[in-house]
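In response to the reviewer comment on reproducibility (Comment 2.3), we provide here a single inverse folding case reported in full, input and output, so that an independent group could reproduce the run without further information from us. The structure tokens appear first.
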């Protein structure tokens, strides 16, 4: 499959059979990034904020998946969590989506605002690729993101939702999350092709190139 990082918390997954799934599309006017106006067959939105829910930007009239879903090409599991550490009192709910495609399990944490408990971890199951927010302020910060990676123990962790020069609000930069870590791979591209045989035995952090 191909994993494309479109910026902020937005990714497009393209399966071997050509199915395209976009997660958390954003309104570029809110972020100072190009709006991800790409073709998609399905779209997943973790929560209803403009930097995660701009479905109108997508081409192809994608079907919105909001709950558990299964087809011949892929399956989705929706796990309800919170956008803050006060069970949603500050910023409401958030959804973790796990997507199984081409034999790989990917988990997108959206704007996760807290450490995971055992029930959530059991619901997620074994995760190969973890898309994790690391910027703090509106989500878990770099330190808590490191704890969550240790909790989930994916084969690959891909950071998202971090500060860049273009972003109009302040978030920690990705380097705060990477500091002191080994097994970090920085890519010069915004996309990577990956099969099960490409997944490492021990957790690696893959930093994909996004808009700056």
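Designed residues, in position order:
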């Amino acid at each position: 499959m191909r994993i494309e990082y479109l910026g902020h918390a937005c990714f497009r997954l393209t399966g071997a059979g050509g199915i395209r799934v976009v997660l958390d599309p954003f309104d570029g006017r809110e972020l100072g990034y190009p709006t991800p106006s790409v073709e998609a067959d399905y779209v997943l939105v973790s929560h209803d904020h403009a930097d995660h829910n701009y479905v109108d930007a997508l081409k192809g009239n994608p079907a919105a998946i909001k709950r558990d879903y299964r087809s011949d090409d892929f399956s989705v599991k929706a796990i309800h969590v919170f956008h803050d550490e006060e069970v949603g009192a500050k910023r409401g709910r958030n959804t973790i989506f796990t997507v199984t495609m081409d034999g790989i399990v990917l988990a997108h944490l959206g704007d996760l605002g807290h450490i995971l408990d055992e029930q959530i971890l059991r619901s997620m199951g074994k995760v190969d690729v973890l898309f994790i927010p690391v910027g703090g302020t509106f989500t878990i910060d770099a330190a808590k993101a490191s704890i969550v990676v240790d909790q989930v123990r994916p084969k690959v962790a891909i950071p998202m939702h971090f500060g860049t020069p273009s972003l109009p609000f302040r978030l920690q930069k990705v380097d705060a999350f990477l500091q002191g870590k080994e097994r970090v791979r920085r890519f010069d591209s915004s996309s990577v092709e990956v099969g099960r045989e490409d997944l490492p035995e021990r957790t690696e952090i893959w930093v994909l190139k996004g808009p700056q």
